[in-house]
Specification:
TIM Barrel; alpha/beta; single chain; 8 strands
Length: about 180
């Protein structure tokens, strides 16, 4: 059995937008296998992206922006639910795809489009993300599909154990890694 994939997601609320503060906070956070640069409104995102890739290489992922992913050599791109149709195009460009799904049907469609990984969320209650789907719903999906990453409200070691017990490929979180 493969070790769990640990997917750290950054958020300016916790990491800040200033590059010095951002990288300082990131270096003090818990270790992960992949790191998502997620800052949808940073006017200095290009500069931050260049430094991010230089520091984290192919472990680095970018949220939604294929141009930045290709320009700076990100290892993967995290596509949102509205970007399902881009999966094949992005993969043809040689960039790994993590797709954000919130329903079993979205998971099924992302698998059909050959996303490398699929986050399924929210597993647990998390601010502003709607009703939690729960570990049982995750388990039903992982029985059918590989490479499902649990996301949403994962803060504690017991929650990590719960999603890994449901046979998720890994877990993603903002606050767990702080």
């Amino acid at each position: 059995m493969k070790p769990p994939l640990r997917y750290k997601i950054t958020d300016p609320l916790y990491y800040g937008r200033d590059p010095v503060r951002f990288f300082s906070r990131l270096s003090k956070s818990k270790r992960s296998d992949l790191i998502l640069l997620r800052d949808k409104e940073n006017p200095k995102l290009r500069k931050l992206a260049a430094r991010f890739v230089k520091r984290y290489g192919k472990r680095g992922c970018i949220s939604k922006d294929l141009k930045l992913a290709r320009r700076f050599g990100f290892g993967c791109i995290h596509l949102n639910a509205h970007q399902l149709g881009l999966i094949k195009r992005v993969r043809r460009k040689g960039v790994r795809v993590i797709y954000s799904a919130h329903t079993p049907d979205e998971v099924r469609r992302a698998v059909a489009m050959r996303a490398d990984f699929i986050t399924f969320s929210p597993i647990f209650s998390t601010p502003g993300k709607g009703r939690a789907v729960g570990v049982r719903a995750l388990r039903r999906l992982t029985r059918k599909y590989k490479n499902i990453i649990a996301l949403g409200g994962i803060l504690t070691r017991s929650q990590v154990h719960a999603v890994m017990g449901a046979k998720a490929r890994g877990y993603a979180s903002i606050r767990h890694f702080l």
